[in-house]
Amino acid sequence: MGRTLQNTMINLGLQNACDEAVYQLGLDMEELEEIEEDAGLGNGGLGRLAACFLDSMATLGLAAYGYGIRYEYGIFNQKIRDGWQVEEADDWLRHGNPWEKARPEYMLPVHFYGRVEHSASGAKWIDTQVVLALPYDTPVPGYMNNTVNTMRLWSARAPNDFNLRDFNVGDYIQAVLDRNLAENISRVLYPNDNFFEGKELRLKQEYFVVAATLQDIIRRFKASKFGSTDSVRTVFDSFPDQVAIQLNDTHPAMAIPELMRIFVDIEKLPWDKAWDITKRTFAYTNHTVLPEALERWPVDLVEKLLPRHLQIIYEINQRHLDHIASLFPNDVDRLRRMSLIEEGGTKRINMAHLCIVGSHAVNGVAKIHSEIVKTQVFEDFAALEPEKFQNKTNGITPRRWLLLCNPGLAELIAEKIGEDYVRDLSQLTKLHEFVDNDLFIREVAKVKQENKVKFALYLEKEYKVKINPSSMFDVHVKRIHEYKRQLMNCLHIITMYNRIRRDPAKLFVPRTVIIGGKAAPGYHMAKMIIKLINAVAQVVNNDPMVGSKLKVIFLENYRVSLAEKVIPATDLSEQISTAGTEASGTGNMKFMLNGALTIGTMDGANVEMAEEAGEENLFIFGMRVEDVTELDRKGYNAQLYYDRLPELKQAVDQIKSGFFSPKEPDLFNDVVNMLFHHDRFKVFADYEAYVKCQEKVSELYLNSKAWTKMVIRNIAAAGKFSSDRTIKEYARDIWHVEPSDLKIPPPNEPRDAGQDKTPNGTAA
């Protein structure tokens, strides 16, 4: 979520008033804002997407709730020591959190372990361990529409009789100390991005958020006029018309068997009725195609922790496979491929398959990704129910990612096209009229230059490196992962360095290359990549032959509040994943909106950015998905590229020989060995095209006016990538609710004043 103060002032229309009031007190608002901790309760794009979605849902007047876990420790703070990543606990609640309100009156029990008893009256899950879920509510204000939604985060609490009710007579002290075991559930965020780690505590977290949330939703449904009780028992027929639940990846997939358990075991609905309601309630968003990221929980772990849920999953699977078998008799291989249970070795539950079978809609997050989902990853399911599969291209909130972080540019745009674009970003197309306006071109360039000077000052203060603010700011910030190919950027840096040294007199367009992002603590290769970048920076930044022509900076502890500083100062945005691996990306959109040009592959949302702006207004290079597929068919041989390309060979040899690690010449052996022998993401295959494309970038940068005109064309084409547009599509195509652009009357106005503005129909 990042910081809340400035975002709240902007959405409430109070920023200028607050700035002025604080100034009158002899204080500086910006200094005050810097004191607030980031709420870092997610990993990479997935968590940030949820935050943008909350802002858009409130701005569109949807009655929506964001549910999650109130981690005591969020994503770790990253320190760089001697070039290595070191993790520190993110004690973000140390000074309290003024934005949250504990709601103990809504506390709910969550059960674990135990056993299942079957009887004539149905299944009973008994002898369980209970953990309490305590909700904390954080307000989510819409933009200037007097709407405030709720983000409800659950915290784990031990019940007061924890470990004291049974045979634990003597050791009262130990029993109280053991309360920590229950409360550990919400202690810490697992720091993996695009990687599945099948740990028991993680499964507990996933079920914890699901069980608490579903009880909360059902309580609210029963309290509403729709949950009409028919002779004590609630009628749930209207449930899917009143409730829509969107599964953000498979992490909350246990919601599907949990809702079935509630309907069948507790509310005593017949299975078929319960299943129909469940399917119509859930929709699933897939966020990755990397096989190592897909959740596959061992059956024996689920059996121990959630025995009833395993039984329900088996029943769902049996009915699912019976249906497949009736359509495709004797096709045992299809049954194996489509089963929710994977046999062979340890039996596992494929959570993505569970989500597809238990949802009425499945979507990818960019056109190209949704096609890959349909034709490759889940092709059997898409063949069966093609109408279930959709695309919803991701977006970003223009409130945080333009108004808040780049007020200079936001104001400049408003001067030209008015202020309405903030709620309707498609209006940015009006900027096309000003592409040839010399004054506007100069003003856009001036805003960018001011942002760069400000960020350069920040860098000099934090990193003690002298930055040339007129150099090209070439920025690559995102989680560190092999598929995102920070290594390819690194090879390009080394190539530029070698060219400067080979011919110091030759004209070289000065660059400041900024790379930042966190590596999962257990991801060895990602940590080696960080060390390599820092080792290269050490050499480049201290070579007098290079001087101010090339500087390399690794940005420590990349997070939302740092993104808000670096993105508005960026000239060149690096979006260079291997085609077919980045589901969408959202950083790409933030840079586009903030006046950076993109160098990128035809992957994720880059494809649609090129479609919107015209491919000639992005620096597109490298293999397309088809080329990658073809190369896989032929067999990728890294050695071929190394032998054919002298500059690649020189760069790799320098890494291999210890040029960048003279005290430890074989420090980067693992990296080099990976690049030659098991590089799934084919860095060498795109190296040549990448370097050539970077030469075109430098050439255009020399012509400031032509560069800025291309920037304006990009900003003018960024309207599609507002999360407001994304959420409108979810609302219409999946949730079946109508967004309302109406401003509800403020609380100080009499209630009936805005009555004529209130739309007919019921809120969802």
TrEMBL record:
SUPFAM superfamilies: UDP-Glycosyltransferase/glycogen phosphorylase (SSF53756). The keyword DNA repair does not apply. Pfam families: Phosphorylase. The modification N6-(pyridoxal phosphate)lysine is found at residue 590. Residues 738-764 are annotated as: Disordered. It catalyses: [(1->4)-alpha-D-glucosyl](n) + phosphate = [(1->4)-alpha-D-glucosyl](n-1) + alpha-D-glucose 1-phosphate. Its cofactor is pyridoxal 5'-phosphate. GO terms for molecular function: glycogen phosphorylase activity; pyridoxal phosphate binding. This is Alpha-1,4 glucan phosphorylase. Belongs to the glycogen phosphorylase family. It comes from the Eukaryota.
